[in-house]
């Protein structure tokens, strides 16, 4: 399965900053594999570099299955085209454990471990190995772009490209401008972001950039509300989904991202800004110390059980995972399940109504990512849901999903 390349790839490297055709992604983990996938899907040649061969193999597997899913959706009436799309995209991706194999390209996106010294060391090596025109970018969520590039010569060809998880699904890309970035590099990054299907927004090198900076106080205040006993976490989650239209409540989101990551992000923003809104939250620290990190450890604000569907009050997981309610749909109709959850569990919207409202395509993608990440059977996408999506019945926005709607 693994396709390691044994020599430096001879790209017809374009000296123009505007034409990015050959891309290297360093770090083939969760984010790196997603970035590689979207670039390959867009017709670019991609090399993934990782220090661990087993992670390269894992990245290839996950990219392949994601490509199959995308192909089914894009070419639903043409199996041959779908197959060709998967083959072509996958064939554009090469992998290697040697950094030299990825140096001679137009753009290098770094998605390695979130540690300043590791990122600095990597870019110093690449600065010596890469040709003049190569642009460097970091996918860091919390480290300063200026600090990462402080030791290299090509500061004018360096910036942040902050993707969101899961990369193939999330449409946003934050393009971060360090102090020394040139206009040409910035424009090339914006154009590249667009070429891989993202909507780009621009931000200076400020802690948390746009989205995490705004999500930080929101998530911190949700935790404090719960800590103070102002409202239950379930109600806060439902409130933000149904009242503010957020696809996930703050506690679901924290469990999904990982409480350790949340704690780290708040800590960095507090250290860098001194803003009391980011001050440490005792509840969060306690939960991290207890190893309650969210989905990845089986427990965070909610419980996730490997073998048995287990959820306190059965509220939010039902909303996330269609499996349970559709599995039991032989016992009760969809309508009855919705009514039951509304009247019996105080759910303001039934889980199936909510799924249609959010979009079944989004549900399938989120479930697939959760399943891949956690291995929990509860997240395994189910046939009936995949079928609805492949038929274009994706919920309210298409006029039909689990229910039919008069107008879209
Ligand atoms: N996970 C998220 O939701 C998210 C979102 C946005 C940005 N980010 C950022 O993306 C980066 C990667 O995060 P992730 O979640 O994909 O991490 P991850 O742990 O899934 O993947 C990191 C990969 O980098 C590899 N690696 C480590 N050091 C390396 C080196 N020197 N050279 C080559 N490979 C190396 C590891 O083997 C691993 O496969 C981090 O900077 C993180 O802050 C993460």
TrEMBL record:
Subcellular location: Mitochondrion matrix
GO biological process: fatty acid beta-oxidation
Domain 3-hydroxyacyl-CoA dehydrogenase C-terminal: from-to ranges: 208-304, 325-405
Domain 3-hydroxyacyl-CoA dehydrogenase NAD binding: 22-206
Catalyzed reaction equations: a (3S)-3-hydroxyacyl-CoA + NAD(+) = a 3-oxoacyl-CoA + NADH + H(+)
Gene3D superfamilies: N-(1-d-carboxylethyl)-l-norvaline Dehydrogenase, domain 2, NAD(P)-binding Rossmann-like Domain
InterPro entries from the UniProt entry: 3-OHacyl-CoA_DH_CS (IPR006180), 3-OHacyl-CoA_DH_NAD-bd (IPR006176), 3HC_DH_C (IPR006108), 6-PGluconate_DH-like_C_sf (IPR008927), 6PGD_dom2 (IPR013328), Mito_3-hydroxyacyl-CoA_DH (IPR052242), NAD(P)-bd_dom_sf (IPR036291)
Pathway assigned in UniProt: Lipid metabolism; fatty acid beta-oxidation
A GO CC annotation given for this chain: mitochondrial matrix
One Gene Ontology term of the molecular function aspect: (3S)-3-hydroxyacyl-CoA dehydrogenase (NAD+) activity
Major place of residence: mitochondrion
Homology family: Belongs to the 3-hydroxyacyl-CoA dehydrogenase family.
Protein name as annotated: 3-hydroxyacyl-CoA dehydrogenase
Organism: Plutella xylostella (Diamondback moth)
